[in-house]
Amino acid sequence: MEIKLDQAYSDHISQFLSDKRKDTFDRILEQRTKHFTVILEDLYQKHNTSAIVRSCDIFGVQDVHIIENKYKSYMSNQVGKGSQKWLDFHRYREKQINTQDCIDSIKAQGYQLIATTPHNDSCLLQDFDITKKSAFVFGVEKAGVSDMMFEQADGFLKIPMVGFTESLNVSVAAAIVLQSVSTRLRDSEIKWQLTDEEKFLKKIEWMEKTIKSIKKIQERYFEELK
After folding, report:
1. Which one of 79, 159, 165, 214 is CB 3.0 to 4.6 Å from 50, fit for a cystine?
2. How far apart are CA 164 and CA 136, in angstroms?
């Protein structure tokens, strides 16, 4: 059954939600962005994947790209707190090596590829240029981003550290990066928000996910249109 996603349909299903819920959707959608996106390359610990996804939701990053080469990606509801329900996931897992597919897709969308690494030529987080659409890559635990990703990256980013320890847990690093760049982004004059159409369609999707009897409501709506 195909439902036409127009204003009439939106108005119809919205009556099954409280005003408070709809206002929450509107408020959050105003803070969502696709100016930044996140790539998780072959993470194998589900609590790290879940924590990063949770950070994406918290800091308003709508899209998450997940590369599955050696390891399948799993989410922990206990860690993710249901954040995965509100984000858009793009998975690359059809081939033995899926990294290139992700790179090609990201660059075709106009993103610069930024690998997070303590590489000597890395840009310090506080100096990162937020004006360009950027995809931040977080690599597999311990080893970091792959050579393929490293070689095709448009830039490198590192978090300043002054202690004896020279690395951060990947989920902690992601949270720090996203908090920094998203805060600066919202204080800028960059057009970082979703388009009106993107917000409209995403609100419909969220409403559908929230309404328990949505299939029956859609069926009745469809019948009335005949």
Report:
1. 79
2. 25
